[in-house]
Amino acid sequence: MHLYGTQTINSKGHLEIGGTDTVRLADEHGTPLIVYDTGLIRSRARAFKKAFSDEGVPAQVAYASKAFSCLAIYRLAEEEGLALDVVSGGELFTAIRAGFPAERIHFHGNNKSREELRMAFEQGVGCIVADNFMEIGMIGELSKETGRGMDVLIRVTPGIEAHTHDYITTGQEDSKFGFDLNNGQADEALRILSETPGMHVLGLHCHIGSQIFDTEAFGLAARSLIGKMDAWRREKGFVCPVLNLGGGFGIRYTEDDHPLEPDEYVRSMILTVKAAAAETGYPLPEIWIEPGRSLVGDAGTTLYTAGSMKTVPGIRTYLAVDGGMSDNIRPALYGAEYTAALANRMKLPHDTRYTIAGKCCESGDKLIENARLPETSEGDLVAVFCTGAYGYAMASNYNRLPRPAVVFAENGEHRLAIRRETYEDLIRLDAEPAAVGKEGMR
């Protein structure tokens, strides 16, 4: 069993996170409950930043907040001096409400609406990552309408396919994101932006995928982008001050995952960018990265209460919990794997196999196949590790299940970050049903 960050086992045999007993947290806040080890998030953020500063390389580390967004996590990111990557008007609105400095916000997304882009101009975001030609046209129009300029990064697909699941691979040529680097689209994007008043092109951006465990793909992407930037310098006299290599750094979901430490990813990037720039005499650009999952993923643990069990003789025993695909759709969506433990009986041998199933009315609502736990009874507290990224962010009210509460734990204290939804919350947006007379609804 692998423990993460500040996780420990106390004298009662209970799992502790951030110095707080998870059994007490579940008693106080109910389950399902997502507990974030904010000390681990802070240490990861500082490790990414320190890796750049140790090498004396100008950089910007932006939290890719699609992994998990709320007021509290944006405030934590601001406290740690991070920039912020948002991908929708809703994320931008939340960040501004959290008091996050707009000038440190990068606005991403492959289908930004005119209203979302207008919000970005009105709030004065630090840059927009341009994803397609229609968007470039809207940015230019809004710049003219608002009388405000805008820094822009051009997102490109460098043709690099990272070794990851098809659904989370984004850097290959056949992608819904960005301009193709090799067929002239990126060159045309630069031309249009350069001729549009108020636009200031910072450089190139790419994101090649997620859950990447080596540095080879990042190196190939960096060399590809530096090559294009050098061509623009030679052919157009334009030098890009920024190179954004995105995120996608892997984390350990199971014992089969072997991620690198943050400084290993960063140092490899720096070495590659320096080498590629030196080979062509290109001025070293400022390097931007966008860790999301690698900041919050293994900092999150979901606590569930064990419920019913069903044994299929000779096949498996199902252990149902009081959540499931409504708060973690990743296993059903693309076969994501997790590990679990009994948070209230951590010291017992975890040698009984269960298939941990959710309570949604779907046969595919299974969180973990062949989870190893002690012999489990109704009411036990099941902890599923590494749920901090794309768990709550992708949660739904399927089957009208309320979304769970979220707490932040650190240094023996905890605070509520997101309250649990109530049944009243579930119907809050419903229109009142119209009265139906004898003749039926008209």
From TrEMBL:
<keyword id="KW-0663">Pyridoxal phosphate</keyword>
<feature type="binding site">
    <location>
        <position position="330"/>
    </location>
    <ligand>
        <name>substrate</name>
    </ligand>
</feature>
<feature type="active site" description="Proton donor">
    <location>
        <position position="361"/>
    </location>
</feature>
<protein>
    <recommendedName>
        <fullName>Diaminopimelate decarboxylase</fullName>
        <ecNumber>4.1.1.20</ecNumber>
    </recommendedName>
</protein>
<feature type="binding site">
    <location>
        <position position="362"/>
    </location>
    <ligand>
        <name>substrate</name>
    </ligand>
</feature>
<feature type="domain" description="Orn/DAP/Arg decarboxylase 2 N-terminal">
    <location>
        <begin position="40"/>
        <end position="296"/>
    </location>
</feature>
<dbReference type="GO" id="GO:0009089">
    <property type="term" value="P:lysine biosynthetic process via diaminopimelate"/>
</dbReference>
<dbReference type="InterPro" id="IPR009006">
    <property type="entry name" value="Ala_racemase/Decarboxylase_C"/>
</dbReference>
<feature type="binding site">
    <location>
        <position position="390"/>
    </location>
    <ligand>
        <name>substrate</name>
    </ligand>
</feature>
<dbReference type="InterPro" id="IPR002986">
    <property type="entry name" value="DAP_deCOOHase_LysA"/>
</dbReference>
<dbReference type="InterPro" id="IPR022644">
    <property type="entry name" value="De-COase2_N"/>
</dbReference>
<dbReference type="GO" id="GO:0030170">
    <property type="term" value="F:pyridoxal phosphate binding"/>
</dbReference>
<keyword id="KW-0457">Lysine biosynthesis</keyword>
<feature type="binding site">
    <location>
        <position position="248"/>
    </location>
    <ligand>
        <name>pyridoxal 5'-phosphate</name>
    </ligand>
</feature>
<dbReference type="Pfam" id="PF02784">
    <property type="entry name" value="Orn_Arg_deC_N"/>
</dbReference>
<dbReference type="GO" id="GO:0008836">
    <property type="term" value="F:diaminopimelate decarboxylase activity"/>
</dbReference>
<dbReference type="InterPro" id="IPR000183">
    <property type="entry name" value="Orn/DAP/Arg_de-COase"/>
</dbReference>
<feature type="modified residue" description="N6-(pyridoxal phosphate)lysine">
    <location>
        <position position="66"/>
    </location>
</feature>
<dbReference type="InterPro" id="IPR029066">
    <property type="entry name" value="PLP-binding_barrel"/>
</dbReference>
<comment type="subunit">
    <text>Homodimer.</text>
</comment>
<comment type="pathway">
    <text>Amino-acid biosynthesis; L-lysine biosynthesis via DAP pathway; L-lysine from DL-2,6-diaminopimelate: step 1/1.</text>
</comment>
<keyword id="KW-0456">Lyase</keyword>
<dbReference type="InterPro" id="IPR022657">
    <property type="entry name" value="De-COase2_CS"/>
</dbReference>
<comment type="similarity">
    <text>Belongs to the Orn/Lys/Arg decarboxylase class-II family. LysA subfamily.</text>
</comment>
<feature type="binding site">
    <location>
        <position position="334"/>
    </location>
    <ligand>
        <name>substrate</name>
    </ligand>
</feature>
<comment type="function">
    <text>Specifically catalyzes the decarboxylation of meso-diaminopimelate (meso-DAP) to L-lysine.</text>
</comment>
<feature type="binding site">
    <location>
        <position position="390"/>
    </location>
    <ligand>
        <name>pyridoxal 5'-phosphate</name>
    </ligand>
</feature>
<feature type="binding site">
    <location>
        <position position="293"/>
    </location>
    <ligand>
        <name>substrate</name>
    </ligand>
</feature>
<keyword id="KW-0028">Amino-acid biosynthesis</keyword>
<keyword id="KW-0210">Decarboxylase</keyword>
<feature type="binding site">
    <location>
        <begin position="290"/>
        <end position="293"/>
    </location>
    <ligand>
        <name>pyridoxal 5'-phosphate</name>
    </ligand>
</feature>
